[in-house]
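U., I forgot to send this yesterday:
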Amino acid sequence: EHHLEKRSSSVYIFQGGTKKQEDHWVSSSGRVLNVVALHPSLQGARRACYQMISQMNYPGLYYRKDIGAFS
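Result:
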């Protein structure tokens, strides 16, 4: 389950392996979310993605911290 307080027109969340259960979303399998940001710089896009991820809170949350770090 995630509660995204601040919405952004440049950050997108794509979901798969999720399902609606009553009034909230639940994971029905492994990798379920992709967070994508549009920004003029790679560093800005990474920062925006990780800011969005920091608003997510649910049991078993795991995300890679190295995506785009070595480009």
